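Can't attach files on this board, so I'm pasting raw text. These are the components:
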Amino acid sequence: MSSFSHLDQEGRARMVDVSEKAVTRRVARASCRVLLDPSTVERLSEMPKGDAVAVARLAGIQAAKRVDELIPLAHTLNLDHVNVEIEPAEGGVEVRSEVVCTARTGAEIEAMLACSNAALALYDMVKAVEKGAVITDLRLEAKSGGRSGDWQRGVT
Amino acid sequence: MSSFSHLDQEGRARMVDVSEKAVTRRVARASCRVLLDPSTVERLSEMPKGDAVAVARLAGIQAAKRVDELIPLAHTLNLDHVNVEIEPAEGGVEVRSEVVCTARTGAEIEAMLACSNAALALYDMVKAVEKGAVITDLRLEAKSGGRSGDWQRGVT
Amino acid sequence: MSSFSHLDQEGRARMVDVSEKAVTRRVARASCRVLLDPSTVERLSEMPKGDAVAVARLAGIQAAKRVDELIPLAHTLNLDHVNVEIEPAEGGVEVRSEVVCTARTGAEIEAMLACSNAALALYDMVKAVEKGAVITDLRLEAKSGGRSGDWQRGVT
Amino acid sequence: MSSFSHLDQEGRARMVDVSEKAVTRRVARASCRVLLDPSTVERLSEMPKGDAVAVARLAGIQAAKRVDELIPLAHTLNLDHVNVEIEPAEGGVEVRSEVVCTARTGAEIEAMLACSNAALALYDMVKAVEKGAVITDLRLEAKSGGRSGDWQRGVT
Amino acid sequence: MSSFSHLDQEGRARMVDVSEKAVTRRVARASCRVLLDPSTVERLSEMPKGDAVAVARLAGIQAAKRVDELIPLAHTLNLDHVNVEIEPAEGGVEVRSEVVCTARTGAEIEAMLACSNAALALYDMVKAVEKGAVITDLRLEAKSGGRSGDWQRGVT
Amino acid sequence: MSSFSHLDQEGRARMVDVSEKAVTRRVARASCRVLLDPSTVERLSEMPKGDAVAVARLAGIQAAKRVDELIPLAHTLNLDHVNVEIEPAEGGVEVRSEVVCTARTGAEIEAMLACSNAALALYDMVKAVEKGAVITDLRLEAKSGGRSGDWQRGVT
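---
Top answer:
Structure tokens for the assembled complex are below.
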């Protein structure tokens, strides 16, 4: 029977023991969207230097490396690869991340946090123009590697 | 004319100069939802010790204190108060945050990050049970204080 | 002849070279006590939500992951498992930790810091009630793994 | 009636609101001891460069600056002054700290953590020689400033 | 007589007490150069997205916010403004920073670290092409504010 | 054809995928100089406790462990060994570092940052005496291990 991660039988939090799990290559992908007014998206893409998107992408990459400090019970992972892409999409912009590691546990949270932090850094830049912007649909898209095997959104 | 925060005329990123702004009391509130299967919500609330929700709430509070490290161009704020509440809501659970500071700039990002990180910490605990859980509707609810005055979602 | 860790022949600090040591599974356990007035212990255990103890336990787990930042010459370890338990004991409460890693060096300091930080977080919550509370008997209980072999308190 | 810091009426953790408290100069002093074999103390003081004690003192000072990351519900304080002294004492060495800040809340935890982290850094250096060394009597010695006024150990 | 910062009469390190100093607006500017082959500079400026320079500029801004963690005896400052500029110059590129704060102590180290970290981030990107690149002439250009008054390089 | 690290074909920043690279022992050495007035160097070496140099050396060692937080696209490395030496040299003092790791990517940036941060910590201590001190010639001296093989300054 599957159960909550990081909680023991009595519901007490602890960092689960992964020392008996195999070190394997693991990949996780996530995504979210930032809902923005079309005029904000247009202004973002008209910026001559493109720093706004670069800042957000970097914020996502850097956050992925710090999951162990932000998520109390997450294990420390040395990531092999992080990529964050931000592109105009229906209703605003879409943020997509990919994280690869070679470890005893997967990088799902790392991929999720990369997206949410990139989206927040973008919000931080547009908030003077559009304070009400909404970040939505933050979700795991796929993961592979590890004992629980592959998983893909929408595939049962 | 209002414009993007943290970007100069040529679109280059920098931390804006707030040294001429007044130190005032500022409040920001944000919220998001974690969409969960009803059985997951039920299991969460049946946990005898309630640590799952306590962990998520703490993760939100702690993240609010570290905005300056996560959001590249955000100013460092010494927060006076942070609260995070997590409660069952339609479709899963709702996360709400409130942040107070006495500073030259507001705590909107702090309130947003408190919600997103609490939600991610919750996801980290339920992911073995429900990997496809979605975090949604992360948004500022209200802010007060500072030169730009009060703002409330849905109020024009 | 055994000598001080991290100091060279002239007494200068450096991070010792462990690159030739074997990667093995290592376990460390530590403990300490927080001396508290019986009425404080009673009030702690009467708290309806139990968050006080959950906060302290989390503070211990999180600190164990950050030893490399706090102890200047400690190596960075990716921990496989951390557990912290807090229970009423004679004279107050007892804090016990267990840390597991698969690494070139042991997790003794990680186990010690998990206890001291959990105790300090607990003190942070009771200090309005009992400012004079004392943290005592912080010590390694046992360690296993690595070239120097097993060690247990009180066993020669 | 005095009650636990950081817990609301239902026992839920939150960072208490200090925005209405006055900014005043606050001082806190703490101490602890590291029980060591006389031969270890002698070897420490014979080290030609004295780096061992310098490392421990620095570890204490640096930890005081990071209380907000280690103690989940502590406020961020910009410290005006931190000093840590380590001296031979009966049964080993004594660690004493003093912390000064100008803030809405006091630096008691900062002074306590400065001592415990200095002691742990010292333990980290002597552990190859004396794994069973014990850190003990970590306690606040005195605090001044703030609404609750002055407090001194042993003075009722 | 002027003397070393952060060292007491016996040469022991401590964080000096600034609680009696006035809170004033302080500005510091620094610079350094990264010596690069002309072909590397050309390739940098030909990159279509300009992310290389954006990454380096951000690395400088972010490092300025973390001086208290990197420089053991530095005080924590909440910075009002940080800017980093990187431009082609004789022999490679020049990095210039400006930091503003309202505090009891100045931001000289913050301005210096902003430059050195921006330069290192740039080196991190060109190192596959030009491993031998040299960072040079890292220095304070000017500072104003505070009791010691204004200072400018080359002006006696 | 060799190209910039961390930038894709379109010049966008990402953390490169090293998951297919071999885990090998890697060593990097770097150096820099701090130009100081002879009287400042003399005063430094006359300090009775030698803490000034110990602080700078520690600052270098600690910075090497935090490269992943400071250099946005750097991978997290668990270092096996870090040493920093500071000695009087022509025109001031020389800082030399050596870093060893067992990893999929090298520790060149770690060695460079160890030197620059040690130099900045030293500047932080002498700045009251000699504000115009210059840090110069920060450069990689040698690296070994990994697919690109050995490299040594001045050897073609």
